[in-house]
Amino acid sequence: MIIAVFGWRASFLITGCLGLVWVVGWFRLYRDPREHPRLDPAELAYIEDGGARTVLPAGAAPAVRGRWVDLLRHRTIWGMMIGFFGLNFAFYFFITWFPSYLVEARGLSLLKTGFLGMIRRWPRSAPSSSAAGCPTG
Length: 137
What we know:
With 137 residues, the chain is mostly helical. The chain has helices at 2-6, 8-29, 41-49, 75-104, 110-119, 122-132.
């Protein structure tokens, strides 16, 4: 829709500005739990005792850093790499070549192509958006 109304350059400008707004918001809100002005001591104790380990437990050994090349010894890593290669190939196909094909060979307008590409994402976005707002056990 942005491209149809304002042109393709504006789509980069608008999404870049949204990214900058996100960065400003992130740097204003994110901080170490101990430095947060509205965090009460009970909540800080809950964070440090629970899953968000900001301090290592007494007597715990620090994590051992591994080498990246050691990951290549695992079959599951190779499977993930092959799977992501296929996924990225299909994704790249659908965001680069396929829209051009629909416009040039099938005569669809750029706006209609964008709308049709958006339709397939709607069924996935509703459950994930509602699930993100649901607290879990």
